[in-house]
Design a protein that fits this description.
- This protein is mostly helical and about 100 residues long.
- Helices cover about 60% and strands about 0% of the residues.
- It contains 7 helices and no strands.
Length: about 100
Amino acid sequence: MKKLLLLIAFSVTPFAAIAADVAAGQAKSAVCAACHGANGVSPSPIWPNLAGQKEAYLVKQIKDFRDGNRTDPTMAPMAAGLSDSDIENLAAYYANIK
């Protein structure tokens, strides 16, 4: 029974959410702050707020910018050098800001 509960817990919770490092995401977020604000709250309506967004949503969007599935002349170069781990950490950081 214990193994079944663990299996269910891991199948419902995305593994990336378990492995993400919020502190590493915060350290990596300095570049993002220029447009998206120091705490993920944008100072301008032309850039979205990142604070409080769903982690999976942020991972998908940033990876899409990095991988060319989504284009933007500002975001594409910002995301180009990010590893999967960087993206997961950033997403965890912004998702945990309330």
